[in-house]
Amino acid sequence: QVQLVESGGGLVQAGGSLRLSCAASGRTFGSRAMGWFRQAPGQEREFVAAITWSGGNTYYRNSVKGRFTISRDNAKNTVYLQMNSLKPEDTAVYYCARKGLGSDSYYYAHYYDYWGQGTQVTVFS
User: Fold this and answer.
1) What is the distance between the alpha carbons of residues 88 and 102, in angstroms, rounded to a whole number?
2) Which of 22, 27, 30, 43 fits 96 for a cystine, CB–CB 3.0-4.6 Å?
3) Is the dihedral of CA 90, 91, 95, 101 positive or negative?
């Protein structure tokens, strides 16, 4: 089974940067696409970014385009989320997840099959 562990979250001032990491603690990612989601208190989990197995294609929600960059290093079984120009609205628990089979959609949590425990990101003004 695949186990995912996020790290790199923390407290940062608006306009600052953080780099999140997601490492496999068990099996490899299994040649799957990977995604990042986030969830603020009392809100639904929402899509942030995704990347295909080869890294040739990336996907972002509109509100983070130009600020966030997703990347992966398959040799290290690690996926990254570089977050720049952070805003208070980015405050949430960030989760990495492995894309499941059977769907071409990257945007919905329902289509991911393994999830990490999450890492807290707090952005203050």
Assistant:
1) 35
2) 22
3) negative
Structure-token pair, residue 5 = 């562990």
The most confident of the ranges 12-16, 30-34, 110-114 is 12-16
Residue positions counted in the chain? 125
CA dihedral 22, 77, 67, 103 (to 10 degrees): -90
First to last CA, the chain: 40
For residue 30, the model assigns a pLDDT of: 67
Contact between residue 79 and residue 51 where contact means Cβ atoms under 8 Å apart: yes
Residue 61 near residue 47, CB atoms below 8 Å? yes
Output the DSSP codes for the chain: ---EEEE--EEEETT--EEEEEEESSS---S--EEEEEE-TTS--EEEEEE-TTS--EEE-GGGTTTEEEEEEGGGTEEEEEE-S--GGG-EEEEEEEE-SS----S-GGGEEEE---EEEEEE-
